[in-house]
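Figure 3 (text version): structure tokens given as input.
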């Protein structure tokens, strides 16, 4: 209905934008890369967050076309950021829906990366376990091809699903993103929950490192949470403490005027 109309209008007018949220190195606090978070800049309604339309786009099958616009916008924006001093190795992590894993995806990624002058190592493909749920050999082959090409695979929302651990042996995962729910309790008055989540994050970090994966903690909002993650030896952090997802031209303007 209403939202379907918004989506088709947005597709026609290229209203989908990838906003960038920095992912920072826990030791140096330098930005290593960005997660691309989709927004729909509606001609009349303003900026719409994906919560309003992703489920509908998945049901109606438009998510593939939306995903293509987001991938292109993310690569184009990363190309601009890469030109700034010291940013030539920055990466962008793009979220992919299960429905996007069709046989044409690896070739599309390769051709769009080359079109925008992005090296494969500068693209991270973020998946959730929804992508892996049925252990579809076709999907695994596609992930293998993307990994072989040189892009990294990140497992998002880690620790919240049904059997996240078993995927680590079957899929070429390079990055594990600790879900924000673990970080959120740190520093609240729920001391026992916080203590248990601290131990869980410590264990996830150890497993991930044993599997040669980089660990990113999400949803970091306070200095206290950040310090704890530093002490746990987590590699990178992402969250409002550093920045909200930003419209990339604004981000670039600030990066070029603040130096
Ligand atoms: O950006 P938040 O800002 O509101 O994102 C909400 C949810 O939407 C998150 O679970 C996120 O993974 C998902 N999401 C954000 N951008 C994209 C995208 O480009 N593609 C897909 N499939 N999901 C996205
Ligand atoms: O599911 P996924 O991890 O892809 O989506 C990340 C979601 O979390 C996005 O909606 C993003 O805007 C949001 N987010 C990013 N950083 C923070 C944070 O520090 N706190 C909260 N509450 N949400 C965040
Ligand atoms: Mn994500
Ligand atoms: Na997440």
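Below: residues designed for each position.
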């Amino acid at each position: 209905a209403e939202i379907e109309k918004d989506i088709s209008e947005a597709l026609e007018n290229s209203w989908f934008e990838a906003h960038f949220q920095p992912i920072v190195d826990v030791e140096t606090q330098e930005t290593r890369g960005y997660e691309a978070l989709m927004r729909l800049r509606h001609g009349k309604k303003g900026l719409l967050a994906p919560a309003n339309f992703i489920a509908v786009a998945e049901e109606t099958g438009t998510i593939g076309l939306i995903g293509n616009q987001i991938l292109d916008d993310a690569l184009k924006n990363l190309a601009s950021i890469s030109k700034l001093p010291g940013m030539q190795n920055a990466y962008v992590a793009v979220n992919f829906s299960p429905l996007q894993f069709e046989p044409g995806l690896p070739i599309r990624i390769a051709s769009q990366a080359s079109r925008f002058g992005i090296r494969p190592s500068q693209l991270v493909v973020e998946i959730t376990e929804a992508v892996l749920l049925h252990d579809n050999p076709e999907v695994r082959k596609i992930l293998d091809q993307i990994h072989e090409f040189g892009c990294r695979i990140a497992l998002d929302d880690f620790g919240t699903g049904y059997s996240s651990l078993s995927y680590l042996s079957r899929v070429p995962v390079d990055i594990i993103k600790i879900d924000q729910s673990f970080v959120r309790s740190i520093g609240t008055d729920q001391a026992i929950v916080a203590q248990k989540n601290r131990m869980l994050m410590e264990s996830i970090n150890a497993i991930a490192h044993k599997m040669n994966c980089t660990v990113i903690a999400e949803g970091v909002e306070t200095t206290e949470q950040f310090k704890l993650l530093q002490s746990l030896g987590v590699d990178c952090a992402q969250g409002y403490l550093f920045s909200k997802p930003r419209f990339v031209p604004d981000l670039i303007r600030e990066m070029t005027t603040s130096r």
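The beta strands are 16-25, 31-42, 46-48, 91-95, 123-127, 152-158, 175-178, 214-217, 236-237.
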